[in-house]
């Protein structure tokens, strides 16, 4: 079956109807899934295996048959572990049909057909009884239903239901318990992902400060989790204000309640400072004694010995509703509120315990200022990047005159305000800010798409300065922001003949890299703890090759260390001073590999040339040493194109040679096709 899906093309802005293969979503799900990463997570796999063996022996020692319920079996891995450990029978539940099918194949291939029954259902649909999916209730409950926030994938309601209907009282659970830890910190860098800092503008008539409105200052933000590779955050970027404390734990061997609740701890700050951020992570004990522990603790907490890189579980950053000054030794209360799927935090000064209790409300935070809906965390960070703002101000100053008529095309941008303070007459939207800064009558908001712009929108004036960051919320890959070029083309008839376009051009840059770890997410696993999971590898490979064109994927590379193996190379240029050409832009060439290493893929990013002298990069900031370690723009995602050698897990030669490439930008579709040969 084919379905038609309407969408705005992220690059050209055109409304288009795509004929989607019904399998498209499913292939996307498999190709971009975390299954490969989980199978590569040796630490997790080994500990699950140990925990499962221990649980099976405890049940056997009691003289009982070991009946296992594995909820969310995925590849069937944990059920196969249980069967190998001597379990009498396993019910392996998997809701996602393609995975359930894969589990059936993998279970058969590994010779467990008689011991494991794969059931393609959501666990809450599973029936127990002589005619049911399960003959009887299980006495061992095995699951791996956790995300970085622990409960975000619905572990609590699933456990609640399983204890009521699917497992025996007093069952063994692997994992046995999970514990959530927190640490209070001050961090300008992380706080800049949640609040807009004042922007200082050096105008001709003195300094102007763009401030955020009070609604924004006091807004609790949004409840979506901010999960990051905290191990990539240097200790110089935050100040620890408290010890690590246990916030709450869940015993999975007992009935679990998923209803909203809160937990409270008393903290004694180890340092005075501004409490802004709660860092959080969890660990799981695979057995009741706590001897088999799998932890997400970051580098400054964990003994470095057993470090396991993983991307399916990271660490959480929670933003307190407001920054609170705290004093060393002066106790405060930290409250974690949670509903079924998410957690949020509040901090209160220590008062009487009873008085504080009254304050606890468990509704999840809802953004009241709109900004947290318009800007995601990296975008807040980008707007707060003073150096970046300075580059825009410098180049705006060069081109703006008092009689400039300026049009800004970018989403949720501060450029209109900068342009106004730096001398221009008019521009576009974002009410809240204009009100707070008393600019409603100075900056005009045009609520129209570029192609439907009319001279009456512009009060019959021609645009002398066209500006953009460019930034659009619809952009996923770096070159999607080239939408600015299409918008510029659409408004051409409204531009003066000697219009200044800022940025004047953009260029696409490319570099060959070796990743420290990120390659794992796309690399086949083969044999996992003795079980053959190649069926899964083939499935992922097939999905990655679906449509026969591999695609680049967005990743924030500041979180994923890599080494450059080649010099960065400019591969395409987009000249915004001219309109979008009819013909394709294409390039071919080869890059020499300068350093030894494994060529895992190419990284691509955009650089915007605001004018002849000032450029801003959304990708590489610098190569920091002779080993080739890279520093990336911390606010942007770069495009990563994994070479087939990663996907096929070919052994790669370490010797420096060259990579040839062919890159084609189709100006009609806005798509970039690329091909690389090692
Ligand atoms: N157990 C496997 C896979 C874990 S990923 C392993 O450890 O390698 C979690 C899987 O659980 C996903 O495939 C997801 O589709 C499935 N899942 C999540 N909640 C479920 C539920 N309540 N019932 C059935 N499957 C569920």
Can you describe this structure?
The chain has five domains: 2-32, no CATH class; 34-144, Rossmann fold; 179-370, Distorted Sandwich (Hnrnp arginine n-methyltransferase1); 385-502, Rossmann fold (3-Layer(aba) Sandwich); 505-518 and 526-677, Hnrnp arginine n-methyltransferase1. The chain contains 17 helices and 36 strands. The longest helix has 20 residues, at 42-61. The strands form ten sheets. Strands 8, 11, 12, 13, 15, 16 and 17 form a seven-stranded antiparallel sheet that branches. It starts with a strand and ends with a strand. The protein has 678 residues and is an alpha+beta fold. The protein binds S-adenosyl-L-homocysteine.
In short:
It is an enzyme of class 2 (transferase). This is Protein arginine N-methyltransferase 7. By secondary structure, the chain is an alpha+beta fold.
Topology (SSEs and partners):
Blueprint: E1 2-8, E2 15-21, H1 24-31, H2 35-39, H3 42-61, E3 67-71, H4 77-84, E4 89-93, H5 97-109, E5 116-119, E6 138-143, H6 155-165, E7 167-174, E8 177-186, H7 188-191, E9 199-203, E10 206-210, H8 214-217, E11 226-228, E12 239-240, E13 245-251, E14 261-267, E15 273-285, E16 293-295, E17 315-326, E18 332-338, E19 343-349, H9 353-359, H10 371-374, H11 377-383, H12 386-399, E20 406-408, H13 415-421, H14 431-436, E21 463-467, H15 483-490, E22 495-502, E23 505-515, E24 527-528, E25 531-532, H16 534-544, E26 553-555, E27 562-564, E28 569-575, E29 585-592, E30 601-609, E31 615-617, E32 620-623, E33 630-632, E34 638-642, H17 644-647, E35 658-666, E36 671-677
Parallel strand pairs: 3-4, 3-6, 4-5, 6-7, 20-21, 21-22
Antiparallel strand pairs: 1-2, 8-12, 8-13, 8-15, 9-10, 11-17, 14-18, 15-16, 15-17, 18-19, 23-27, 23-28, 23-30, 24-25, 26-34, 29-35, 30-31, 30-34, 32-33, 35-36
Helix pairs in contact: 1-16, 5-16
This protein binds S-adenosyl-L-homocysteine (SAH).
Residues 38, 71-75, 77-78, 93-96, 99, 122-123, 144-145, 154, 158 line the site of S-adenosyl-L-homocysteine.
């Amino acid at each position: 079956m084919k379905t038609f899906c309407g969408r705005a093309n992220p690059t050209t802005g055109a409304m288009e109807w795509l004929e989607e293969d019904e399998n498209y979503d499913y292939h996307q799900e498999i190709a971009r899934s975390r299954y490969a990463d989980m199978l590569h997570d040796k630490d997790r796999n080994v500990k699950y295996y140990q925990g499962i063996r221990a649980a099976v022996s405890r049940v056997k020692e009691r003289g009982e048959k070991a009946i296992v319920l594995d909820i969310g079996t995925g590849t069937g891995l944990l059920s196969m572990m249980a069967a190998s450990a001597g379990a009498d029978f396993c019910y392996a539940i998997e809701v996602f049909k393609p995975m359930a099918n894969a589990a059936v194949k993998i279970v058969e291939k590994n010779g467990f057909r008689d011991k494991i029954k794969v059931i393609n259902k959501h666990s809450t649909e599973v029936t127990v009884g002589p005619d049911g999916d399960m003959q009887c209730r299980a006495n061992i409950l095995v699951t791996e239903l956790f995300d970085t926030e622990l409960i975000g994938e619905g572990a609590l309601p699933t456990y609640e239901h399983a204890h009521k209907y699917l497992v025996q009282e007093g069952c063994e659970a692997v994992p046995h318990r999970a514990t959530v830890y927190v640490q209070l910190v001050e961090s300008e860098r992380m706080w800049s992902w949640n609040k807009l800092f004042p922007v200082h503008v050096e105008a001709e008539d003195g300094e102007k400060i763009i401030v955020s409105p009070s609604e924004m200052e006091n807004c609790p933000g949004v409840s979506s989790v901010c999960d990051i590779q905290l191990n990539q955050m240097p200790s110089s970027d935050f100040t620890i204000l408290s010890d690590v404390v246990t916030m709450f734990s869940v015993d999975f061997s007992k009935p679990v309640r998923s209803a909203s609740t809160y937990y409270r701890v008393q903290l004694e700050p180890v340092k005075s400072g501004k409490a802004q951020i709660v860092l959080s992570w969890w660990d799981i004990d695979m057995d009741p004694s706590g001897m088999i522990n799998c932890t997400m603790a970051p580098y400054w907490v964990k003994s470095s010995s057993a470090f396991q890189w993983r991307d399916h579980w990271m660490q959480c950053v929670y933003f307190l509703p407001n920054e609170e000054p705290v004093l060393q030794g002066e106790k405060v209360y930290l409250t974690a509120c949670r509903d079924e799927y998410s957690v949020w935090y509040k901090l209160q000064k220590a008062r009487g315990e009873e008085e504080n209790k009254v304050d606890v409300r468990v509704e999840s935070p809802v953004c009241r200022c709109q900004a947290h809906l318009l800007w995601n965390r990296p975008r807040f960070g980008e707007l707060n990047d003073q150096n970046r703002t300075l580059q825009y101000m410098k180049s705006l100053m060069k081109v703006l005159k008092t009689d400039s008529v300026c049009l800004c095309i970018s989403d949720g941008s501060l450029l209109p305000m900068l342009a106004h303070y730096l001398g221009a007459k008019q521009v576009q939207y974002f009410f809240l800010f204009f009100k707070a800064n008393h600019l409603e009558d100075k900056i005009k908001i045009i609520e129209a798409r570029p192609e439907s712009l009319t001279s009456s929108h512009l009060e019959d004036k021609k645009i002398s300065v066209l500006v953009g960051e460019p930034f659009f919320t619809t952009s996923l890959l770096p070159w999607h922001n080239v939408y600015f070029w299409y918008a510029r083309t659409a408004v051409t008839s409204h531009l003066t003949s000697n219009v200044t376009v800022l940025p004047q051009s953009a260029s696409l840059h490319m570099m060959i890299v070796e990743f420290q770890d990120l390659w794992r997410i796309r690399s086949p696993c083969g044999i996992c703890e003795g079980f053959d999971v190649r069926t899964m590898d083939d499935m992922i490979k097939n999905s990655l090759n679906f449509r026969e064109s591999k695609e680049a994927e967005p990743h924030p590379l500041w979180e994923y260390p890599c080494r450059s193996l080649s010099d960065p190379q400019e591969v395409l240029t987009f000249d915004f001073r001219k309109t979008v050409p009819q013909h394709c832009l294409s390039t071919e060439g080869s890059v020499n590999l300068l350093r030894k290493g494994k060529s895992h893929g190419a990284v691509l990013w955009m650089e915007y040339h605001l004018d002849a002298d000032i450029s801003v990069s959304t990708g590489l900031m610098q190569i920091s040493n002779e080993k080739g370690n890279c520093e990336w723009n911390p606010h942007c995602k770069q495009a990563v194109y994994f070479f087939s050698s990663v996907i096929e897990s070919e052994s790669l030669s370490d010797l420096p040679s060259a990579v040839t490439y062919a890159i084609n930008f189709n100006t009609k579709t806005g798509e970039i096709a690329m091909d690389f040969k090692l």
